Automatic annotation (TrEMBL):
Pfam families: Disulph_isomer. This is Putative bacilliredoxin, YphP/YqiW family. Belongs to the bacilliredoxin family. It comes from the Bacteria.
């Protein structure tokens, strides 16, 4: 029995992708999809840089899911997957300056401009509820 590494990784990360797509977040898998979606988006856009790490599973994805239960949410919801869709992730990170690459991370953009960013170090030592509170405060401020 032989399985390619790529197939194995696709199978392993699918549940991690599903954590976000099943709550209505659209995956951007290519640099072209990112370029077509982020810079000219009108209104507010949430971009989750997904990851296979434990803090993505335990804090980031659950925190995002909780935040999206809030009355006020962004107009557009996207995700890229660091380490899996490398080119799409690199393209998305171009819009997150001046922040260095960080995964997981969460960006909130308004009319194509970054207005709020949560880096990995702000995820790994906080609970999902704290991340959700951070996001809902940002939604209240920028998504009205």
């Amino acid at each position: 029995m032989s399985m390619s590494f790529e197939r194995y990784m696709l199978d392993m990360v699918q549940p991690m992708r599903d954590d976000l797509t099943r709550i209505g977040i659209k995956e951007l898998r290519t640099p072209e999809e990112v370029a077509d979606s982020l810079p000219d988006a009108k209104g507010t856009t949430l971009v989750v840089v997904n990851s296979v790490c434990g803090c993505a599973a335990g804090q980031c994805r659950p925190g995002v899911a909780e935040a999206l239960q809030h009355d006020i949410t962004p107009d557009h919801l996207y995700t890229v997957f660091a380490g899996q869709d490398k080119e799409a992730t690199a393209k998305a990170r171009e819009y997150f300056a001046p922040y260095p690459p960080s995964s997981p991370s969460i960006a909130l953009m308004k009319d194509g401009e970054l207005v709020h960013f949560i880096e990995r170090h702000q995820i790994e030592n906080r609970s999902a509820a704290e991340i959700a509170a951070d996001l809902t405060n940002a939604f209240d401020r920028y998504c009205r």
